[in-house]
Specification:
Chain C: It is found in: Cell membrane. The complex is a heterotrimer of chains A (520), B (321) and C (386). Chain A has 17 helices and 22 strands. With 520 residues, chain A is α/β, with parallel strands linked by helices. Chain B is mainly alpha-helical and 321 residues long. Chain B has one domain. In chain B, strand 1 and strand 2 form a beta hairpin. The interface between A and C is large, with 69 and 42 residues.
Chain lengths: 520, 321, 386
């Protein structure tokens, strides 16, 4: 935890007064006022959809506020577009990087901030400046490297360099650690502290309490579009912040009894995946999952977890063998594989429900049959039975508390949590032997998170096997009976939750082998 | 075929590839900026009509050319409005523009000239004349090199040379200037350009307008240099062939020169050999005429190498959080 | 958010506004070339629906456009843009003609079945190659289908001028006339009291077109295949997850699309010309795009849009005769503008209409409730509209 000397008299870098923003009927920001002191790291925390990103987008000129004023360095500063934000000394590092992949680092840095109409002098000047910045802030990156060849940690540095090249005094980072290993996150925090000590102001948007406690000086909490509190980090606790975020006491732990694992349901041996670009994404995976247990796969995103789920779900080609209930299953990745998986008792809640799990334009009742639409219960012969689908949907909505319980609404009209409940209901009620579930609570509000976690545990207690993939270490720790850590297409090790901690898992996630595999 | 015959075919190929080259570079600017343009065809047609009409009316080919460019720019503006401002479907917009050009050229042509959609035959100063390069006559006598210079390179209308000059110019703009950097960036990731404080709309409009300008030149060349007047549907799929050439060229200017020359050569061969005897089988004229279209399909099928298009191509830019 | 509009506004009001915009702009064009747009409109309307003669042609053209519109619409549902209707319909004509020329068919009822199979098969076959290239090699189907239009036109010229031409019959590039026994009953034969002339082109294929509408409706909204086509069209990654084969859907959707478009030949080749001529399609393949867009890819919408375009084509033909210096290509202009306004500039029309509806609805509604979050509550950005 960092503590800064008292800064009561420090001038304000940014002040927002009464900012409001509505999207149609949705009030994303409601009368928000906030003061950020110069030379501090100010955290903004809130759950998904609390309005954090909207607020920052207003500050960066992406959206125009309906009401309210922005003061930069004490002066009222309207920010109609990004250029105005840049001119006001604001730099932004987005959650999804805004880099041109086939360009070099240098080209990315000067884009939009070139000196003159020809590139040559701009590039020469940027090269010199970049070298200086790298030395000053531990921001080393090869200026001539092509961005798409860089790992995410380095790409993030390019984003920070872009902001510094534009002489930003205020740096906003939106969920910066989501794609980083713990080690990379530590490095980032060192950079941020260095920047603060040079007098820069940093705003860190995150939903991770640990990060707030670790690095910020002040923290503001947002809930449902409103700013509920701003407190000194040193004077608060994670529990208090969590309560402020949600508005009531929440259980951060999941209640569950010890697992009663039975026979092996899924057996994976020597699984390899080579993608279209010829990159090896899985480099020999061995896994066993038994009935009545949750196997959690931890890891920073992009280390092969998605590919593993896709292979198990039947829509990615792979080499190796997989046995489901003792039967070897096909790994051709053709559409028939994906259909067969469902018949073989494998259900799949995919990582990205809006891209894969649901057809967003389809109504809820059409979605409850998706993937199972050829089954007898949803029709006969060539035809679909839309009445059966509607009835099924009504039942699922009641049992899974989907709101509003209207089968005729399009999937896109539901909130993230309710969309996830529709997918979950579809997959769980098919009564699978194995449930694959990826990022079960991404973009889901805390209320629904509890519900979803309970469903997963209940399914396990019914004696089903569950493979859980999540980038949230807390979620893995809370739900899993065994934890496997993936790094660079390999399983780095397996641990029992009771015999490990976040530090050890963090090391494994960064590709550093720890102790030998824990005995069961 | 003797050497003179070969030179003659290459000469004809150069003429025929010129409108394709203009159109291909036009598509290059638009697509590198992330805007698909199926409507090259319509812009060429509109420009061909208006340039011929204006040239016929004033007797001045230059005025004709500017009128043609203006027609093409107007259609480009519609495409820009549809695909950039209103974030509509770029393919549908292009298709609509093609039909619009097909319809308007005939409706207006018939109202103005009453010749069933044709413009009057262009003569004299209403057409682009042939330029003789310096020393062409002096060098012609030199064996081998002489005919290449005097008969192949010399003796074209000025627009042929303009088209050829556009190739290095395009390369230079894209790779060496600020505008080019931003243009390429907006075709790959418009969000990067937007967050850098540069207007995505402005850049894309600029690209679409350059595309309109170049299509205008293609159309003007077609009606006032290659032919002597406008005839109904005279673009004959050149806009689409240019798009195929663009894919074949992997969106690069120098490659575009080669790809369009290949199509020009094919057309020249088709014109020269109305029916061809190959291994005792007579290949019908219609096959020779369809050859450029067939080759286009073959190229698109990727039998001659795959290419990665600009990543943000065809997608309207919507800001996201 | 499409939910901002009531359904009737989405399927009726917006297309109507689009059509009016297209007509207004075309009227400006007419005025620009020094003619009276109101006179043109009145000739157009009278010519199209002012007489049994006009209705005969209007419905005849509409029949063509229903087939091509349905074909384009089925492809649209799979998010495929089939602009190869010209070629597919031409090949459909070839298939139809070959059946009628070379199979001994005693009666028109038998002949229409055989010819339909021939037309559908050839139309589908011409769509198959672009479909295969799209499915397997990712070749842009828009450009390949256009190229296949050009190739089809060359092929037709070759076949009709070299192969199928009747020797010694004046040398015009067309096949022999079909035998009298396969003559389709036309509106004069079936409905003599309606005042259709003996030579009216409207024939029983119109009923086949209506049957095709029903078929497409059942296919898209009631079958498992239709469900898969729509799912694939909405989201390719989801289709992959759901075990829907992209190759299969692209192929099937395009084959059905090509077959429907090919069926147009039953109306134009078998029903009207009664022989195969050099361009049996006359732009109907392209009209199908406007019809499908305007009809929102729904069979009922396609039917209505086809009627409208049928009237425009018939009325446009009359314009050529009745107004000096006016050509039927003005219809092409209207068609282009309809495609432009409905397909590409949709947001231009939609956004203000949505805003109007939203503000009309806002007044009676209470402000958003601010009760605390509960399980199942939704504090996401994507709120449900009550």
């Amino acid at each position: 935890m960092t503590q800064r000397p008292s800064q009561g008299e420090a001038p304000l870098a940014i002040e927002l007064r009464g900012i409001s923003k509505a999207f149609g009927p949705v009030q994303a920001n409601k009368d928000i006022s906030i003061q950020v002191k110069r030379g501090t790291i100010h955290g903004i925390i809130g759950e998904n959809g609390a309005g954090k990103s909207t607020l920052m987008s207003i500050l960066y000129g992406f959206y125009k506020a309906d009401a309210g004023e922005i003061y930069i360095g004490g002066r009222p500063t309207p920010i109609p577009d990004s250029q105005a934000a840049i001119d006001a000394g604001i730099g932004m590092v987005f959650q999804h990087f805004k880099l041109v992949q086939p360009f070099t680092v240098l080209e990315n840095v000067i884009l939009g901030a070139e000196d003159g109409k020809l590139l040559k002098p701009s590039l020469a000047k940027a090269r010199k400046l970049l070298t200086d910045l790298a030395r000053e802030y531990e921001l080393d990156v090869d200026p001539d490297a092509v961005v798409e060849d860089l790992n995410v940690g380095l790409q993030q540095r390019v984003e920070i360099l872009k902001a510094l090249y534009r002489e930003a005094d205020i740096l906003i980072l939106d969920e910066p650690t989501g794609v980083l290993t713990p080690a990379e996150a530590d490095h980032l925090f060192r950079i941020l502290k260095g920047l603060r000590d040079q007098g820069k102001t940093i705003i860190l948007i995150t939903h991770k309490l640990r990060e707030i406690m670790e690095i910020t000086d002040t923290v503001s909490v947002m809930r449902r579009g409103e700013m509920t509190a701003t407190v000194k980090t040193a004077e608060t606790s994670p529990e208090q912040l969590a309560e402020l975020m949600v508005g009531r006491k929440v259980l951060l732990r999941v209640d569950k009894t010890p697992a009663q694992p039975k026979e092996t349901v899924l057996e994976v041996r020597g699984l390899r995946v080579i993608d279209d670009q010829g990159v090896e994404r899985l480099r020999g995976i061995d896994l066993d999952i038994r009935a009545g247990e949750v196997l959690g796969i931890a890891g920073v995103s992009g280390n092969g977890q998605s590919e593993l789920l896709e292979v198990l779900g039947g829509y990615r080609k792979a080499e190796g063998t997989i046995r489901m209930n003792g039967q070897e299953i096909a790994l051709t990745g053709s559409a028939s594989d994906a259909r067969m998986r469902r018949m073989q008792g494998i259900a799949h809640v995919p990582e990205d429900r809006q891209r894969e799990g649901l057809i967003m334009e389809f109504r809820a009742w059409e979605n409850v049959g998706f993937g199972y639409h050829r089954e007898e219960r949803f029709g006969s012969g060539l035809f679909m039975d839309n009445t059966a689908l509607r009835t099924d949907c009504e039942g699922k909505m009641a049992r899974f508390d989907v709101r509003p319980p209207d089968p005729n609404l399009a999937a896109k009209s539901f909130s993230g949590g309710n969309q996830q409940k529709i997918v979950l209901a579809r997959e769980i009620e098919r009564d699978p032997d194995l449930l694959l579930i990826g990022q079960p609570t991404r973009g889901v509000d805390i209320g629904a998170i509890e519900f979803i976690h309970k469903q997963v545990v209940a399914l396990r207690d019914k004696g089903k096997a569950i493979l859980l993939v999540s980038v949230e270490l807390d979620e893995i720790m809370a739900l899993s009976d065994r934890i496997a850590v993936m790094f660079d297409g390999r399983i780095m090790g397996e641990r029992l939750p009771s015999e490990t901690d976040a530090n050890e898992l963090g090391l494994l996630m960064a590709g550093m082998t720890g102790k030998p595999v824990a005995a069961e | 075929m003797d050497y003179a015959g070969l030179i003659q075919i290459l000469d004809s190929a150069l003429r025929l590839s010129t409108p394709l080259l203009f159109a291909c570079l036009a598509g290059l600017f638009s697509e590198r900026a992330g805007v698909f343009d199926i409507g090259l065809e319509g812009k060429i047609l509109a420009s061909a009509f208006l340039s011929a009409a204006m040239a016929a009316y004033t007797g001045n080919v230059w005025l004709g050319m500017f009128a043609g460019i203006l027609a093409s720019l107007m259609l480009a503006t519609i495409h820009g409005m549809a695909s950039i401002t209103f974030r509509g479907n770029q393919l549908i917009s292009g298709v609509a523009i093609n039909f619009l050009a097909s319809g308007l050229t005939v409706v207006i042509g018939e109202a103005w000239f009453g010749l069933g959609g044709r413009t009057p035959q262009l003569e004299g100063a209403a057409r682009f004349g042939e330029l003789t390069l310096p020393f062409a006559d002096a060098i012609r006598g030199i064996p081998f090199i002489g005919p290449i210079y005097a008969d192949l390179l010399s003796g074209h209308s000025i627009l042929v040379y303009v088209a050829l000059l556009c190739v290095p110019l395009t390369w230079w703009i894209l790779s060496r200037t600020r505008f080019g950097l931003r243009l390429r960036a907006v075709g790959e990731n418009p969000a990067a350009v937007d967050t850098a404080g540069v207007s995505v709309v402005g850049l894309r409009f600029a690209a679409v307008m350059i595309c309109g300008l170049l299509c205008g030149l293609a159309g003007a060349y077609l009606a006032t240099a290659l032919s002597a007047g406008f005839v109904k549907e005279m673009s004959a799929g050149r806009g689409f062939i240019a798009l195929a050439a663009l894919i074949f060229a992997k969106w690069r200017p120098w490659h575009a020169l080669g790809a369009t020359f290949l199509f020009g050569l094919l057309e020249a061969l088709g014109n020269r050999f109305q029916s061809l005897e190959l291994l005792g089988i007579t290949i019908p004229t219609q096959f020779m005429q369809a050859l450029p279209y067939i080759l286009t399909v073959v190229i698109l099928a990727g039998f001659v190498g795959r290419a990665i298009p600009p990543r943000a191509g065809g997608e309207p830019y919507v800001k996201e959080r | 958010m499409t939910d901002a509009l009531p359904k009737w506004a989405d399927i009726l009001l917006i297309p109507l506004i689009n059509l009016i915009l297209a007509l207004v702009v075309s009227g400006l064009v007419v005025a620009l070339i020094g003619k009276d747009p109101f006179e043109a409109l009145s000739i157009l309307v009278t010519g199209a629906v002012g007489s049994a003669y006009g209705w005969g042609y209007t419905l005849f053209y509409a029949t063509n456009f229903i087939f091509t519109g349905l074909g384009v619409a089925v492809a649209f549902h799979a998010r495929l843009f089939n602009i190869g209707g010209e070629g597919q319909a031409a090949l459909g004509g070839l298939g139809c003609a070959l059946v009628l020329l070379y199979l001994p068919l005693p009666h028109w009822s038998l002949a229409i079945i055989a010819a339909s199979l021939g037309a559908a098969l050839f139309g589908a076959a011409w769509a198959a190659i672009p479909a295969y290239l799209q499915a397997k090699r990712g070749s842009h189907i828009v450009i390949t289908t256009i190229m296949f239009n050009f190739i089809a036109s060359a092929l037709m010229v070759y076949l009709l001028s070299r192969v199928l031409i009747v020797p010694g019959a004046g040398g015009s590039p067309e096949t022999a006339r079909f035998v009298e026994s396969v003559h389709l009953p036309n509106a004069y034969d079936v409905l003599p009291w309606m005042g259709f002339s003996r030579s009216t082109p409207l024939n029983v294929s119109f009923l086949l077109a209506i049957a095709a509408c029903v078929f497409v409706w059942v296919l898209i909204w009631r079958t498992r295949l239709g469900y898969e086509i729509r799912a694939f069209g909405q989201s390719e990654p989801a289709a992959l997850y759901g075990g829907i084969s992209s190759v299969r859907i692209i192929m099937i959707a395009m084959l059905i699309s090509g077959a429907l478009i090919g069926l147009m030949a039953i109306n134009s080749v078998m029903g009207e010309a009664e022989r195969l001529v050099i361009d049996p399609v006359q732009g109907a393949g392209f009209v199908g795009i406007a019809v499908a867009l305007m009809g929102r890819s729904h069979p009922v919408g396609v039917f209505l849009a086809a009627l409208l375009f049928g009237a425009l084509y018939q009325g446009g033909g009359e314009l050529t005769f009745e107004m000096n210096g006016m050509t039927r290509e003005i219809i092409l202009v209207i068609q282009a503008l309809v495609i432009l306004f409905t397909g590409a500039l949709d947001n231009m029309v939609r956004a203000p209409v949505e805003r109007a509806f939203l503000s009309a609805r806002k007044r009676p509604r209470a402000p958003l409730p601010t009760n605390p979050v509960e399980p199942g509550g939704h504090s996401d950005e994507k709120k449900v509209e009550p």
